[in-house]
Structures are given as structure tokens and as C-alpha cells.
Prior knowledge:
This protein has 145 residues and is an alpha+beta fold. The protein has 3 helices and 6 strands; from the N terminus they run ααββββαββ. Belongs to the bacterial solute-binding protein 5 family.
Amino acid sequence: MRIKKLTFLTILFATSLGFIGTAQAESRLILGISPDYSTFDPGHAYEIWATTVLNVTYDNLVKFEGLGDVPELDAAKSRSASDDGLTWTFKLRDDIQFVSGNTLTAADVKWSFDRVKHVKGNPAFLADNVESVSAPDDETVVITL
């Protein structure tokens, strides 16, 4: 009887080790996705899985948090709209850097919008309502619809 009890306790202990969690760094994101995507290039990505990865990889001017339906500031520290709602002005945060160490500028944002607007392929229609994007200075982006 003692051997059966010891065997049972040993098996119970060994199998319970699989349920012990280990601490992970808070900055680590593990995301299981379907391999059904064509690119992770932000200018060409259109599938839901690729855009899901890109949305947590890159900063956006604004973003939606959780189930919210009002966009919150992300790379922009402020935004304002003209009375007719056709011109939007964003002021950029100054603490966003590329891997190279270069700080994000309004010219970078303009380049990204221009690239999406003129790309051949799926995501180009997303910028159809954008008439123009300008960068009057390093921290200001003006989008005209």
C-alpha cells in the first residue's frame, strides 16, 4: 500500500509541474496567428492577421483601445479639426524613435500616407478620402480630406 501511495504522489507531483506558470517580461507579446498573410510591409498589408501584428508593432497617429469607438492619441500628442471637419492637424510626440535612433517627424508621417495613397494594390483605397497630407514643421501633420 505504501508503494502505491508513493507512486500516486510521484505521478501527481510530476504531472502538476506542467501547470506551473513561469514569469515573463511584461514587454513580451506572444501572438499565435494563422500563416495566411502575404506581407508585413505596412504599405501593402491588408489581411487581418498582418494588420493585427502591425498595429502592435508600429505607432499610429491615433488608435482604438479595446472596444472603444473613439480613437485615442498614439503617436500624436494632440489633434484638432477645422469647423467643417475636412482638415485635421496632429502634433507629434517627441519620444518616438525608429530602430535607427532617428526621431519620428511629420515628414515621415507624410511619406507613409503618400506611399499608401499611391501604392498599387489593396490598401490604396483606404486613403481615397485623403486629399493631401502636409508637414509644415517637424512635429505638425496636416491631413486634408
